[in-house]
Amino acid sequence: MPPRRVWLSWSTGKDSAWALEELRRQPDVEVVALLTTVNAASGRVAMHAVRETLLKGQAAAVGLPLIQVPIPHPCSNALYQQAMATAWAQARAAGVTHIAFGDLYLEDVRRYREALLAGTGIAPLFPLWGRDTGLLARQMIAAGLRAVLTCVDLKQLPAEFAGRCFDADLLAALPAGVDPCGEHGEFHTFAFAGPMFRAPLAIAIGPSVLREGFLFTDVLPASPLPAAASQQ
After folding, report:
1. Distance between start and end Cα atoms, the chain
2. For residue 216, what is the enclosing H or E element?
3. Contact indicator for 6, 126 with CB cutoff of 8 Å
4. Beta-sheet strands, E only, within 18-62
5. Taking the domains of the chain in order of start, what are their residue ranges?
6. What is the DSSP string of 186-197?
7. Which fold is adopted by the domain 4-221?
8. What is the mean predicted confidence (pLDDT) over 100-125?
9. What are the angstrom distances between the C-alpha of 78 and each of 38, 71, 72, 75, 111?
10. Cα dist. 190→13, 99, 130, 143, 193 in Å?
11. Reduced to 3 states, what is the DSSP secondary structure of residue 86?
């Protein structure tokens, strides 16, 4: 049988990057593109607040086309679902059979994604589901995945974690009750190196900005980035 054609929901973070690594190990799966929602007003990836330039650099570095879904800000659930319905139609037209997500264990998030895809003819995949997040975090780091914290929820994590590297020292410093992978939204990351990348992305850490209880740290390209193929 031919491999399943898969789009990967790509947040720019470590879990998306590791999901790609896991999927590429499966002989019956072919990841054919990355799918990302982008804030149309700011030109940044939703929640992670990563610049489009860096998003496109990631796609080029992993060797995959990028499908960008622009969404307004603020974005109602109805508008989000409308934008995603257009993306699902594009996926079907491209022969895609599955959308993969980097979710780890939040049942409500999984049910929401399954409901979004119900009746579309496209099935969800969860290649990291049910993993022990402490073990998973250490596995990522040991394999050479490198990421920086771009967003910190100040209700769950102190401000000094913003802009830090996702590494063994960070794991050791996390307060009790904080998930090692940030699965409860404690933090979000930008992955810039690892086995899924052809070459690391050169980045610089910019200033941090407080918005609605979240501290966002800007990540800047430190040198010209490769251009990504686009299927937008």
Report:
1. 29
2. strand 214-221
3. no
4. 29-39, 44-45
5. 4-221
6. SEEEEEEESTTS
7. Rossmann fold (3.40.50)
8. 96
9. 16, 11, 11, 8, 17
10. 4, 21, 22, 16, 10
11. helix
Contact between 202 and 221 under an 8 Å Cβ cutoff? The reply is yes
CB 184 within 8 A of CB 48: no
Residue 185 CA to residue 164 CA, distance in Å, equals 16
For 155-208, the pLDDT digits (tens) are 999 999 999 999 999 999 999 999 999 999 999 999 999 999 999 999 999 999
Give 31's strand partners: 6
Q: Please state the length of the chain.
A: 232
| Contacts of 52 by beta carbon, 8 Å cutoff, 6+ apart | 38, 43, 44, 45, 68
* Pair of tokens at residue 222: 């430190």
> Is the Cα dihedral 165, 191, 61, 71 positive or negative?
negative
Q: Using alpha carbons, select from 218, 230, 148 the residue that is nearest to residue 187.
A: 148
Map residue 19 onto helix, strand or coil.
helix
C-alpha to C-alpha distance for 66 and 56, rounded to whole angstroms:
7
What is the reported pTM?
0.93
